[in-house]
Amino acid sequence: MRLDADLAARLAQVALGHVTREYPNHLAHLLHGSRDACTPRALHPVFYGSLDWHSCVHSYWMLAHLLRLYPHTPPAPAIRALFDEHLVQPNVGVECAYFERPGTGSFERPYGWAWLLQLAAELRHPGCERWSAALAPLEAVMLARFRDFLPRATYPVRAGTHFNTAFALALAADHGGLGPLLHETAGRWYGNDRAIQAWEPGGDDFLSPALIEAECMRRVLPPGQFLPWFDAFLPHLAARLPATLFEPATVSDRSDGKIAHLDGLNLSRAWCLRRLARALPDRDPRRPVMLDAAEAHLAAALPHVAGDYMGEHWLASFAVLALAAQETAQDPDP
Q1: Who contacts 334 (Cβ-Cβ below 8 Å, separation ≥6)?
Q2: What burial letters (b/e) apply to 76-112, b meaning 16+ CB within 10 Å?
Q3: Which own/partner contact pairs does 146-153 have at CB distance under 8 Å and 24+ positions apart?
Q4: What are phi and psi of 213, to 5 degrees?
Q5: Which of 150, 152, 172, 326 has its CA 20 to 30 A from that of 165?
């Protein structure tokens, strides 16, 4: 399956169906008193939908990305209208003020922070100037949060969920605003990792700790440094080892939000495998087995992007990541 205008339109319609759906809502909100008990939209007038803050942020990213790639599909006017209504200075000001509340130092750290930077980077493209300018104050908040947090973070978080630090560094690298800090942090956290055992998946993973670490290092290291590191980190990929990385995860109950994460694992593995394969020489024996594994993971997950709301509120974004990687993995760099 390829990302074309028809599929882009279908995925955009999925996101448009939930970015302004306020309930159900999984609100991560610290109350200091009864007056702090507010509705999601009062707290977050931009990112109040999609069950939770971070899913709404990366759904906005997906909509902006698809709008850039396919500006004339049927959902395009609705995307522009959504952004014109929500990505405005007063709303963003309330979002910024939330991060000044006591006890919000770890709010959405680091997953939501990274997705906000990814959205900001996407809005740098022509035609998005008014939305980019409106979002800029919140973008600055996220950059400041990263600059404060990364030097203090002695250890990485290697979970397969939102707290994974490699995923956050990988997305933040696309933004470009953190520069050498990402290189230093990734080297400190991951530079000496060798022959990873890949004890995965966990029962609620939507990221592969092994593959997302490799994808993080691919983004922050020059090719001459990345390839030797990758050879030592996953030394047996040509033999399809660790075997768990080549087997799509089984999703037994898509109405269970945690188990439904495993569809996201299959999509994010496909994304990483495609990107990592692209970084290898054309005749490298690891390349075809990685591309085959990516195809298997895509086939396992793409039919389930929509359906139950526990997956539907976020999976389309990961499908776009995986499909975009599929489009470019076998092509030369632009």
Answers
A1: none
A2: beebbebbeebbbeebbeebeebbeeeeeeebbbbbb
A3: 146/110, 146/113, 146/117, 146/172, 146/178, 146/181, 147/178, 147/181, 149/109, 149/110, 150/178, 150/181, 150/182, 150/185, 151/181, 151/185, 153/185
A4: -65, -45
A5: 326
pLDDT for 324 equals: 86
Which pLDDT band holds residue 223 (cuts at 50, 70, 90)?
confident
CA 31 to CA 11: how far, in whole Å? 35
Residue 22: how many CB atoms within 10 A of its CB? 14
Nearest in space to 20 (alpha carbons), one of 52, 57, 48: 48
Domain ranges of the chain: 1-27+38-152, 194-334
| pLDDT tens digit sequence for 83-137 | 999 999 999 999 999 999 999 999 999 999 999 999 999 999 999 999 999 999 9
Residue 46 per-residue DSSP state: S
Please tell me the distance from the alpha carbon of residue 61 to that of residue 87, in angstroms, as a whole number.
Answer: 12
Mean pLDDT of 72-80: 98
Q: Which residue has the tokens 């495993």?
A: 262
Cα(197)–Cα(281) distance, rounded to whole angstroms?
A: 24
Sign of CA dihedral 31, 152, 275, 291: negative
Chain centre to alpha carbon of residue 15: 15
